[in-house]
Design goal:
about 170 residues, 8 strands, about 25% helix
Length: about 170
């Protein structure tokens, strides 16, 4: 059954935009998880311009990325250590450019744990009501099929109709 209550799990944190091995600049960011979009995580980067930069990608990518390298293409995530600190690196690519961001592993993991308590991995589809929608669609189809197979003229005893060129029993 679909749960219509929408919960939002947010976390403000400071990421580092890695410009070179020796230089990184702080970037305030907000991680957002919404139960009405249970497969996705939303990250908003406040980069000092009029408009923040928003990225959305699979929550599972971030969950896996805190343990081992994963992803390809536009979003890649992997754990590492920088100056003795455990961090999660996110490499983001778009037509506008590429960015390598460093996030504190402990803060990301704590936030992910909150999202997983809210919607455990593997139960996301229940939040969307996909099974309920499929059941409703199939129930409608079954009723339509039942009506289609019924003889439209009840005076013939309710038998199902068959094409005229189909042989009768014993014909042929």
């Amino acid at each position: 059954m679909r749960n219509t209550e929408n919960t939002v799990v947010e976390r403000e944190l400071e990421l580092k935009l890695v410009l070179s091995p020796e230089r990184a600049v702080p970037v305030p960011a907000r991680l957002v998880y919404r139960t009405d979009d249970p497969y996705a995580v939303h990250v908003t980067f406040h980069i000092g311009s009029d408009h923040p930069v928003d990225w959305t990608f699979a929550r599972e990518l971030l969950v896996e990325g805190v343990f081992r390298p994963c992803g390809h293409g536009d979003v890649r995530v992997w754990p590492t250590k920088v100056e003795g600190r455990e961090v999660v690196l996110m490499a983001l690519s778009s037509p506008d450019g590429d960015a390598l961001l460093e996030a504190p592993s402990g803060q990301v993991c704590a936030w992910l744990e909150r999202t997983l308590r809210t919607v455990p991995s593997g139960t996301e589809a229940e939040r969307l009501g996909i099974d309920d929608g499929i059941d409703a669609l199939l129930a409608t189809t079954a009723v339509r099929d039942e009506v289609w197979l019924r003889d439209p003229s009840p005076s013939l005893g309710g038998e199902t109709t068959r094409p005229r060129d189909e042989p009768q029993d014993g014909e042929g």
